[in-house]
Amino acid sequence: MIAYTFKRLLTLVPTLLAASVLVFLFIHLIPGDPAAILLGDTATPEEILALTRELGLDRPLWQQYVLWFKNVLSGDLGRSLFFDTPVLQVIADGAETSILLALLTMFWIVILGIPIGIVSASYKGTWIDQVTSGFAMLFASIPTFWLGLYLILIFSVGLGWLPSSGFPSVSDEGGWTNMRYLILPSLTLAAPNAALIIRLVRSSMLDVSREDHVRTARSKGLHPARVAIKHVFRNALIAVAAAFGFTFAALISEAVVTETVFSLPGIGRLVVQSILRRDYPVIQGVILIIVVLYMFVNLLVDLAYAWLDPRVSLS
Amino acid sequence: MKLLTFVKEALEGRKLATAGAIWLLIIVVAGIAAPLIAPFDPLEIDPIARLSEPGTPYLFGTDHFGRDTFSRAVYGARMALIIGIGSVMVALLCGGLVGMLSGYFTGLGHVLMRMVDVLMAFPALLLALVLMTVLERSVFNTILVIGIVYATTTARILFGMMLKLKNEVFIDAARCSGAGHLSLLFRHILPNLLSPILVQATFIFAFAQLQAAALDFLGLGLPPEVPSWGNMLAEERIYITRAPWLLIFPGVLIILSVFSMNLLGDALRDRIDPRFKDDIAGV
Amino acid sequence: MRYVTALTLGSRMISPVSDNQPLLRVENLCIAIQNAGQLQPVVRDLSFEVQASQTLGIVGESGSGKSLTVLAIMGLLSGSPVRVTSGKVWFDGKDLLQLSDAERRSIMGDGMSMIFQEPMTSLNPVYKIGDQIMEGIRHHQHCSAKEARTRALQLLEKVKIPDASTRIDHYPHQLSGGQRQRVMIAMALACDPLLLIADEPTTALDVTVQKEVLDLIAEIQQDTGTAIILISHDLGVIAQTCNFVAVMYCGEIVESSTTEKLFQRLGHPYTRGLIESIPPLHSDVEWLNAIPGQVPALNALPVGCSYQPRCSHAQAQCRQNPPVALLDDEHIVRCHFAQQLQGRAS
Amino acid sequence: MNRDTRWKAIYAVVALCLAVSTANAATTLRYATVGEPPSLDQHVVTSDLATTIAHHMFEGLYTFNAANAPVPLLAASDSMSDDGKVITITLRDDVTFHNGQAMTSADVIASLQRWGEFGSRGGLLFGNVSGIEATGDHEITINLSEPFGPWKNLLAFINGGPAIYPASIMEGATKEPLKPEDYIGTGPYQFTEWQPNRHVELSRFDAYASPEGEADGYAGERKAEFDSLKFFPVPDVGTRVAGLQAGDYDYAESIPGDLYASLDADSNVSTILNGGPIFGLVFMNSKEGPLKENFALRRAIQTAIDKTPALQVAIGPEGLWKANGSFLPEGNVWFNDSGVDNFSRGDAEAAKAMAAEAGYTGDPIKFMVSTNYPFHYDSAIVYTKQLAQAGFNVDLQVYDWATLIEKRAQPDQWDLFFTHHGFVPDPILISVMNDNYPGWWTTEEKAALKAKFTASSDPAERQAIWGEIQALIYEQVPTMKTGDVYTYNIASPELQGLGDATLIWPHFWNVSK
User: Fold this and answer.
1) Which of A83, C157, C234, D399 has a CA between 20 and 30 Å from the CA of residue D166?
2) Closest chain B residue to the Cα of A21, Cα to Cα
């Protein structure tokens, strides 16, 4: 397993290298001069030129890349043009929000998506199944930001139950009760993804339930719920786990929108804001880290896959 | 024609999916005949009539420019079609070709699929965001960007299908009877892939609507003057309480259309050749 | 030891020689399949009995309804479009069809258990075989994991899995087909069932392995005295293992007898067809006498005798429902010409 | 544990709980801003957002009273020589920095010098300063090469202005904005922390020495009632409104005009108008392209536009905008009506004729606008329609703000662009007066009037010269004013002492909850 993980990590290297070039290129193709934006309205062309030089933005692109990548390897993602602090620190500041948001969202996805999917599959063809599958599909069809706007309107402005926006750190005053700030955003984010998991659990369970070994399990006289969970769902989990990598990617994408709607100080909003501010080092850093994270998650998914399915051997 | 019967068979006995298909038909008609249906010019500004409530003559009310929301919604249907069909075409042309060629010529395939892997490591919206910032806001670029994002998944899926098909007996038979690469790919293999491609296309169409709306919301999608449902939501979102109709109508239109497309895609997928069932992600 | 069976054909009970209550008695069982809103009968008015410690073989081509019959007895039809429409299944003094689901499940895998056709797919790939055997034991006997494991180990040894103490922790994919079928048998035997149903247990196996598995089943029968229903499309297999045979065609029993008598005096032309299509072992055959034609579709059953369109002896008379003929007190045939044909048996 | 220590422990726990509960009861003002400020260093940053936060911790020598007149803040008094070339400023001697040091003339000199050399608006004043020196512990002298009228306004305008920092911080400080750890000022609140994207927090400065006198605009007594001020970036306006209504924020800035009526009627929300209006400006390219030196064509464009419908569409309710052609609003000392007849004629026919006469043949006119500011975009849409009716071929180019800023620095990229300007107390601070500002209006007529304008320190004379400059703007049209926009903010009704309107930036001294 360790050897396999190591090997997989090695195969990530070329992908990562290619991704880093791509990230770098994308960012430098963006129109907009960071120096001009930093200096604001009243800057003279001379001042802009001076700052451009100071930031090293006047060198050939490949030199900038080599320099950047060398620094990345030593753990230095550069300094934010906007905050004038190390990029890593800017990202770390946003990481708390994004990680907690992702965890809470995953929590909803799992506690909503999996049981509803199991129920839906167990009552296949009945009204229960039709209602749950119908709603799952409906929720997968709602634009995230639209849902978020209405959740704020109903639960924050209308009922006053939950905070509308922002997220004070859990290390600040309020401690873990600050998690209530993440309830609406995480539900918004979970809705389409839980819907996806419901449908996936349902369809893989239906596939598995047609398999012979389920009949064997039933012939042992086991309770249908036990058959559904231990034999059908457990095997369906293999396909579901494989989809979690995809869910993770969807989560990151939709977090960009959700964090914007709820003004959360997370990495998703950081990307949008940094694009608007032309804060190249931050955009590069965030995207690079997300790409690495995504590959890492995919590795975890593969490991989980092997762990869930004894037929898959890691070699 | 074969595809039409395929769709007809898929919809048999599925009331909700049939209702969805009818709704989509309405959207298509509205989109094509927009100038005939829309009572007003969707761009005509009328400061006096701004933020009028739904009623006559403004069926869906007006926005803060005093533009008729109903007319904009009708033209929005046209834009939804353009975005959907455009993205599907880009995704299928780029992704489909890459996927098919990679699956057919395995040597080349490994290289191409590695490149697809690299692109897939970028989460969809993030990739779209960065690409949109590099390019400028325009209908064409939006289509291109969304198309490229889904081209990666399409390439993957078609690659998988090709690997399965390539070893089927009838392909061997055709190969033995002297069919060339081109003829094998397009005369023998492609027809077998048409229905799964159609299913994939419905899902891309549906996702493209959501992606386009998200890009519009972030201010990085279609040019703001283009009447699209996403822009209508993005531009008027501060009026959520002041003029609720401005968010409800376009929002419901997006949801219904994506929902219908997903239902249709689901029905088609259930009808599809079991060989490919696992390959298509969908919702 | 003399086993006595009583088979009924149609609704008429014939010669219940038994002096004690049969272990299993199926009375007028009708099974139908839900198809586009209509109920399509698949098994019609089926009746038979199995005494304790008896081995009954049910033989017939695929589509004859033999598998559905045993699935109905087992109670495994729920969740499929197939259901029992009428009839009774008496097992151990209870009518299984009248029991609640929970009562039914308490019998499944305990008093009655089943081995399936596909050993490759009938085991759950994600659990160790030991755990799969233990699951039924723990469920029915409420014992500790340790006890269940000891029992599972004994069972594996009993079905002659080599190196059972290691194998118990293997996953199904690490075992060969024959071994998996042995595991299936071990699993079915876990709670010392009174009745073991084996649905084509050897069809998917190599010929050499087939024999080993059949021998094993026979041996277990000897040892434990469990009653067995063996289902096969291969009369040869049945002949090797069973002391009673029922031949099914189109959802009906067309002939039944002790194995011995069946081979002595062939009653039904269909049975004859089946026998002629057995490939003789150890001999080079150039062609087999396959029965011409196909099993008719359920919605296009012929009038009168169902076998009549394929039967070489068919006459106008065969368009009437055939009578039940008793060739012997244990040999029953459903054919217009039962008496005439038997003489021509080879 | 014996009896005694057990009781002690219980007391300690109770005391701790009390301490925690009072800590929780600490009053915090929660302010939803439109975004994240680039830096709070007032010398080099001109963002209004930065000043909204920073003027609670940094103070200048002067500030503005409610009538927008400059009055002493850290200064105690001043005098000027008869020739108007030597200014002597006496400093207050009771002022302490947040680091505990007392403020002396050394700090003031160091701060003014850095601002003069590197500050955004420092060059305007220091172009005329020949020397600056400490003439006592609490007295400084500024020597001017020429008399310079706007000096006190420039010293009072804290945005991009001369905040007073300790000399130790100023040592080696250049164009680079100060780091947060160097945010040391003299204001009623001091810097606590800045969590990027999350909040900027200021806390009460207990050793604050308030200026004397009744509060009047930014002048007079300053009392910090809150324990801390927290500024949260909430870029989405809908979220700012919802957040305030839901009670997550006490104050939210920059709210769209269309919501005014409903928010004003909402008893859970109070609305606060911003005193000084902002105004939109459409700059014309004086360096390149069809508009270069073609003043007649520029006037034709100006004639084609009717500003009112754009304001109606972009802002909404009547009370929140004014189709006012004077660069500074009515009631302000700089208000005048020279040239304003041409402000908003909206005469397509006349414009067509004027354009033909100016030799316009239908060349495309590139008009850049950003969607980051909805009112820019909304107005530009209306203008484009009007210009099209007058026969102009307008190529509307929509960018995000960052791209627009880059493009406008390149003379070959544009002919018109839309921006807006904040309220300023002295017209010299208006961007069109800056020769380097994109548009590059540098005609001889402008240069002559500008020289006259800065040389005078007589208020009446300066006002008259400003009138001439405004007339010249309407004649040469380096930029078109689009009208005054009164922005407003919303607050929780629990806030006491806000007043009905802010002067320029909202302030939270003398405000409590």
Assistant:
1) A83
2) B118
Model confidence over D198-216: pLDDT tens digits? Answer: 899 999 999 999 998 899 8
* A164–chain D nearest CA distance, Å: 5
- Any chain D CB within 8 A of the CB of A280? no
> What is the rounded distance in angstroms from the CA atom of residue B127 to the CA atom of residue B133?
10
Closest residue on chain D to A173 (Cα): D24
Q: What 3 state SS string does D375-438 have? A: HHHHHHHHHHHHHHHCCCCEEEEEECHHHHHHHHCCHHHCCEEEEEECCCCCHHHCHHHCCCCC
Contacts of B45 in chain D (CB under 8 A): 309, 313, 381-382, 385
**Nearest CA distance, A62 vs chain D (angstrom):** 23
Q: Under a CB-based contact definition with an 8 Å cutoff, are residues D19 and D150 in contact? A: no
Indicate the length of chain D as a whole number.
Answer: 513
- Distance separating alpha carbons of residues D239 and D261, to the nearest angstrom: 18
Q: How far is A208 from chain C (nearest CA, A)?
A: 10
Q: Which residues of A touch C108 (CB under 8 A)?
A: 218-221
Among B136, B224, B242, whose Cβ lies nearest the Cβ of D377? B224
pLDDT (mean) for C70-88: 83
Q: Do C116 and A216 touch (CB under 8 A)?
A: yes
Number of neighbouring beta carbons within 10 Å of residue A130: 14
Name the packing angle between helices A2-29 and A61-73 (round to 10°). Answer: 150
Where do the domains of chain B lie, and which CATH numbers do they carry? 2-39+68-276 (1.10.3720.10)
CB nearest to D236's CB, from A90, A97, A260: A260
CB atoms within 10 A of CB B148: 19
Angle between helices B245-271 and B2-11 (to 10 degrees): 100
Please check whether the domain covering C1-111+193-270+322-346 is classified as CATH 2.60.40.1180: no
Sheet of C38-50: strands edge to edge?
Answer: C38-50, C24-35, C82-91, C94-95
For residue A157, the chain B residues in CB contact (below 8 A) are: 241
D382 touches chain B (CB under 8 A): yes
Residues B35-49: pLDDT tens digits?
Answer: 888 788 888 777 777
Radius of gyration of chain C (CA): 20
Strand D270-274 relative to strand C55-59, pairing = unpaired
**Is chain D touching chain A, with at least 3 CB–CB pairs below 8 Å?**
yes
Instruction: Spell out the residues 6+ positions from residue B274 whose beta carbon is closer than 8 angstroms to its own.
Output: none
B119-129 burial code (b ≥16 CB/10 A, e <16): bbbbbbbbbbb
Provide the residue ranges of all domains of chain A, joining segments of one domain with +: 95-281
Residues forming a β-bridge with D32 = D232, D252
Distance from CA of D301 to the nearest CA of A (A): 25
Chain A partners (3+ C-beta pairs within 8 A): B, C, D
Residue linked to tokens 């194995």:
C259
Compute the half-sphere exposure of residue C256: CA atoms within 13 Å on the CB side of its CA. Answer: 26
| pLDDT the model gives residue B212 | 92
Mean pLDDT of C36-64: 82
Closest CA to D176 of D36, D48, D55, D43: D43
The tokens for A54 are 């100071």
Q: In angstroms, rounded to a whole number, what is the distance separating the alpha carbons of residues A138 and A134?
A: 6
pLDDT at D96 (0 to 100): 94
Architecture per CATH, domain A95-281, reads as: Orthogonal Bundle (1.10)
Question: Chain C neighbours among A 106-125 (CB < 8 Å)?
Answer: none
> H helices within A74-182, ranges in order?
87-108, 114-122, 127-139, 144-151
Contact check, Cβ <8 Å, B210/A295: no
Residue C39's contacts (CB-CB under 8 Å, 6 or more residues apart) are: C32, C33, C85
Average pLDDT over residues D24-29: 73
ipTM: 0.76
D155 and D108 Cβ atoms separated by less than 8 Å: no
